[in-house]
Design brief:
The chain is mainly beta. It has strands at 16-18, 50-52, 60-65, 78-84.
Length: 93
């Protein structure tokens, strides 16, 4: 599939996303695993996320998490939106 159409899109403005819970190359803490899907002591808690440096005029965010290893085979997407531009996420809906 050609990705030529991507050249026509406006350049995306970057901003910083940080987390107290997500560490590069480390497995999530057990609380972030799914008890609903049978992980013993899993609490289905979403990892903390925080952001800064958004483009001027940003009013809200839509945040999704995609788990490629989810047992559903669909990636079990999670989402929280709309979120005010000064918010941080400690639990997804």
């Amino acid at each position: 599939m050609s990705k030529e159409f991507l050249k026509k899109l406006p350049k995306a403005v970057s901003f910083e996303v940080t987390s107290k819970d997500i560490i590069d190359e480390k497995t999530f803490a057990l609380e972030h695993f799914s008890g609903i899907f049978g992980v013993e002591d899993g609490q289905d808690a979403s990892p903390h996320l925080s952001w800064s440096g958004a483009p001027e005029g940003t009013k809200s965010y839509a945040v999704t998490i995609y788990d490629i290893d989810a047992q559903t085979g669909s990636g079990l997407p999670q989402g929280a939106f709309p979120l005010p531009n000064d918010a941080s996420v400690t639990r997804f809906i």
